[in-house]
Amino acid sequence: MTKILFVCLGNICRSPMAEFVMKDLAARAGMDAQFHMESAATSSGEVGSPVYPPARRVLAEHGICCGGKVARQLRQDDYSAYDLLVGMDSGNLRNMRRICGGDPEGKMHLLLEYAGRPGEEVADPWYTGDFEAAWRDILSGCQGLLDSLRAEM
Fold first, then answer.
1. pLDDT band, very low/low/confident/very high, at 153 (cuts 50, 70, 90)
2. What is the pTM of this model?
C-alpha cells in the first residue's frame, strides 16, 4: 500500500481538496485499496478546523464529500509513516523539510510536478479567492500522480 500525505499551510483548503480528489480518483480507477491518503498543515493555526466552506463547496459540486475531516499539523514522524509527502507550494516544501528534518529519501514533491509542471505551485485560494483554479490544478496534479503511481505498479 502506498501512503501519501498532502500538505499545505492550514490543511483547510488545498491539501484536503487534494486528499479527497485523490481518494475519488483512486476509487474510480478501482485502486482505492492500494493507497492510503491523508492531509496535514505546516502551521498550527487551523488545527481542529473543518475544511473551509468554499473548498467543501467546490468538492461537493464535483460529487466529492470531505465530511469529518479536521485540520492537523504535520509531525516529524510523518516522514517515516508516508511514502510520499506532496506540498502545494515552495513555502510548504520548505516548512515540510524543516518540520521533518530534511528529505533524505527524496519523498517530498510539489503536486504540480505530477501534472508536468515542475516548479509551479497551486495558488492558495484562501488568499486568491479562486477555488475553481485551485480545483483545476489539484485535479490535474492528482490525475498525474495516480498515472505515475499506476505506471510504477
1. confident
2. 0.97
